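Look over this record before class:
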Amino acid sequence: MVRAESASVTAGPTLAVVAREAGVSVPTASKVVNGREDVAPETRRRVTEALDRLGYVRRPRFDAAKAPDLVDLVVHSLESSWTGAVLHGVEAAAHEAGLEVVVSAGPNRARDGRPERGWLDKLTARGSSGVLFNLAELSPSQYAWLDHHHIPYVLIDPAHEPPAGVVSVGAANWQGGVSATEHLLGLGHRRIAVIAGHRRTMAGNARVAGYRSALASAGVRHRAEYVRYAGFDEAAARLRTHDLLDLPEPPTAVFVCSDRMALGVYAALAERELRVPDDLSVVGFDDLPEARWVAPGLTTVRQPLGEMAATGLRLLVRMMHGERPEGTRTELSTRLVPRASTAAPPANRPTA
């Protein structure tokens, strides 16, 4: 098990120094450090600024004789179906490992734009033995904080390339983009657009690269006007769909790089009284519950979110026991799930 240093080891200023700097009592400063809610916002701000300014470090209080039985899962949101799939995978793997999991959304950002540090203090206060992160990204200071405290952690589907040596789990996004595009090519489509996520994320870039590779392999010319970015946002995807439909030669099919964005495509078509797949074939990515609920059912690339989360937890358990995974990046395969949102282009359909 990887353990943090004892709370008796001190570094930097004491809590009394922080309290004096912030103009508060030591008990009040202690409340802020331990994430207590019964502190006035202005007082919390002064103490937090003093903590950061003085470089105060709160040491975790681990019981050296205690076996690891508590881990944290930090997610970007507690309300999305994506998070539900991650929670399901973590819960099943944690049950097998005899672990308890604390789930939280975070971290929020203070008014100055810097991440609030309260969630880190809560992490050490409850003695978590490791952390799973399903966040878009961590800041350099957060990586440094975790490494300084020797807390093992694993990233699930990070948006950007993590620092060297950081362990992460993701999906085969490039292959997923290839599968989605090859499916549409196989139906006879040649005017295939893509509505991508973010330009500079690993997943976004890989899915678009897979789309382009499949087109090139089929000898289909890549059209720059068919590539649109919507930041994984449903409303933005609706607008990008209208842009595509307004082209002089609109696409007959679109690969949408997330199921949530595909819902925006459906909305745009409904606004124009067009139908899926009669007027436009649609392929999504993720295979969230929404893909089955929408009508017609969404053909999509299944990203194994639950398996990714479970794999992340198993890697974390190994790290908590002092092991080091052979590689820092684990990718799980994706697969196409055909439903009713794709068909041959109108020109290729047999007449009645």
